[in-house]
Write a structure and sequence with these properties.
This protein is α/β, with parallel strands linked by helices. It is built from 11 helices and 12 strands. It is 32% helix and 22% strand. This is Bifunctional nicotinamide-nucleotide adenylyltransferase/Nudix hydroxylase.
Length: 350
């Protein structure tokens, strides 16, 4: 018997396989800490539910006596495995006494489960798969449902979900958020279908511009799906005849009409970093090259939204952390990489 079992997942949404693993963890330990990944992300077809909603899904699926033995804690994705592992360990250490016997409960589904090997010192309990469905199949049925036909679309999968999850999915389907996510799911499906016949899955190359001035950051609100209305850095796809530098300056000018001379931008360039996490974009494998500029104490350049941007604004750096859940894909974490936004943010146990 272990003192504490750790169970890590996204639970988007909770299904019977998740509950089977959680019950195994409860049978092996006095207490369980559930680490809810993808926390503070904006709603998307891949992450439709907040971490609080997912924690409630888990709790509702358990008997009352077991609920008292389960503690949920939220962890950001970071899109950086070393930082993510350190964050998980920190959250566990804050809730488990020193010297406690800790087990990590999980199932090796595919390559995405390799994170289970990243916690030496914790006993790894590899549990066989329960059931035949996964959360991706549930989300595809859910967002692929016709108007007013959510329950019918989920019917073939209903026996592999707790009744409480099914009820929560039905309630959420009545919301405006569901309709927006359904539209985005359809757009992404069409997007991927356009290159489905390629001999190899394509790797997309993009550029982004992080422009700072007077402790402000230049951000856009996206005008089109995916991520319509979400905050993002100005950027876009690499053009066939552009260098990365040329594409970065072109996208900055097209989306913000920020016409800072090229020589000024070249002098203000502080760093170029590549962000290449395999899961950073739902559109497919996308590598972006983010150019970090700092204009220092110069006057804030005049800007105006254009091209794919619905809005453009200078945002004070000290307000960025509070906007985390509004950022498209991993753009908040790109800002965090350069500006250290999460170093002092509190955690959120439930």
């Amino acid at each position: 018997m272990y003192d504490t079992a750790i169970y890590i997942g996204r639970f988007e949404p909770v299904h019977s396989g998740h509950i089977a693993l959680l019950q195994h963890a409860l049978a092996q330990a006095n207490n369980v800490v559930v680490v809810l990944g993808s926390a503070w992300q904006p709603r998307s077809p891949k992450n439709p539910f907040t971490w609080q909603e997912r924690a409630e899904m888990l709790r509702q699926a358990l008997p009352t006596t077991d609920q008292a033995r389960v503690q949920c804690v939220a962890v950001r994705d970071y899109y950086n495995e070393a930082r993510w592992v350190a964050s998980v360990r920190q959250e566990v250490a804050a809730r488990v006494p020193a010297g406690a016997r800790i087990a990590l409960v999980g199932h090796f589904k595919d390559a995405s489960s390799n994170y289970l090997r990243s916690f030496p010192g914790w006993a790894l309990l590899d549990v066989p798969r329960h059931g035949t469905v996964d959360a991706t199949a549930i989300r595809d049925a859910y967002f692929g449902a016709g108007s007013g036909a959510v329950l019918a679309a989920l019917a073939p999968l209903a026996d592999q979900m707790p009744a409480t999850t099914l009820a929560q999915l039905h309630r959420f389907a009545q919301s405006k958020d569901y309709l927006l996510l359904q539209q985005e799911w359809q757009m992404l499906r069409q997007y991927r279908a356009a290159w489905a016949s390629a001999p190899y899955a394509p790797v997309f190359v993009t550029v982004d511009a992080l422009l700072c001035c007077q402790q402000h950051v230049l951000l856009i609100r996206r005008g089109h799906a995916p991520g319509v209305g979400q905050l993002a850095l100005p950027g876009g796809f690499l053009e066939p005849r552009d260098t990365l530098w040329q594409s970065c300056l072109r996208e900055l000018a097209e989306e913000t009409h920020c016409h800072v001379p090229e020589d000024t931008l070249r002098a203000a360039l502080r760093q170029v970093s590549v962000f290449d996490h395999p899961d950073r974009s739902q559109r497919g494998r996308t590598l972006t090259h983010t150019h970090y500029f700092d204009l220092g104490a110069q006057p804030l350049p005049t800007v105006q939204a254009g091209d794919d941007a619905a809005q453009v604004q200078w945002v004070p750096m000290n307000q960025l952390a509070a906007l985390e859940a509004e950022f498209f894909e991993d753009h908040f974490h790109m800002l965090d990489h350069f500006l250290g936004l999460t170093s002092s943010l509190p955690t959120a146990p439930l």
